Amino acid sequence: MKNKIRVAVLGSTGYVGMELVEILSNHSYVDINFLGSETIHDTFLNNIDNTKEYNQLPLLKPNNSFNAEDSDYVFLALPHAVSNKYVKKYFDKIKIIDLSADFRLDNFDVYKKNYGNEHECKKYLNNFIYGLAEINRDKILDSKNIAVPGCYPTSILLPLIPLIKNKLIDTKNIIIDSKSGYSGAGKKFDFNKMKSKNDYNFYNYNTNNHRHIAEIKQEINKHNSDKEVNFSFNPHILPNFRGMISTIYCDLNNTIKKTDVINLFKDLQKVNPFIKYIDNNEILDFFSIQNSNYCKIKIFDHYSEDKLIIVSAIDNLIKGAAGQAVQCFNIAENIDETVSLL
Length: 342
Description:
There is one protein chain. It is built from 8 helices and 14 strands. With 342 residues, it is of the alpha/beta class. The chain has 2 domains: 5-127, 3-Layer(aba) Sandwich (Rossmann fold); 152-317, Dihydrodipicolinate Reductase, domain 2, CATH 3.30.360.10. The model has no long low-confidence stretch (mean pLDDT 94).
């Protein structure tokens, strides 16, 4: 058995931070020795539902009181434009797994356009591995710095990259329609937008102008040897707390059949424990993926045989954030990647 790995979580009182603590506290190779927060100090962390108090873990301390010499890893569950300030302090002093957007993009000009210019160590952008576990597993192994993908990109890239890499679909006109639970907007989200006296709300936002478009485009084009991939992206917020479904409409390349795509996804699930292809009558909905690290994929018939409808579902807080971060941690440490995730 490996020695315990000392782990710190900064931003541990946010939705993603609390998911991280829950997963890591059940990890057989991990010792959580620091929990940080910007606002809550000198008390024990409560989980999302306030039904569990982590009184066996350290008391909450200010994020900026963390000493990198005391831990082997630090998970940064912090907002964009905040996380990079801590990376500046800790880079090359400790292994970093960042869950913000600060190190997902390779180009600072693209980051600046989408997130502003509040970045204190843009020189490290290319020192982080993009932590899409199923796609970049070999790069993540033994990596010291990992940038965990966003939730929307995870749900989209996991089905799309294998299709594009294997030239099964046309890359000229892909339509992506995504729907997320409101927890993706964080604790500051105003739930009054979701609930009135009479009904629940549902709306799309930032259509074809969402920050995650740059991330999706960057990673897709790394696997497309022909020309730039063109897609439209329409995200929505649902009144559910957690869960995410992306529906992808695309055209098959010449001579490619739906069975070729099905066979590809069946092969992928054989070597990826968290990808599940649904080939039966099982309903693919939020309930089927909530509180899990799975990405479940299902194909639906189109009226035209040269077109395809793909549905991809994840839990935005786990596979879209905390679970994928721990999966990357397991891979980087050469631990079975399912540890504490199944």
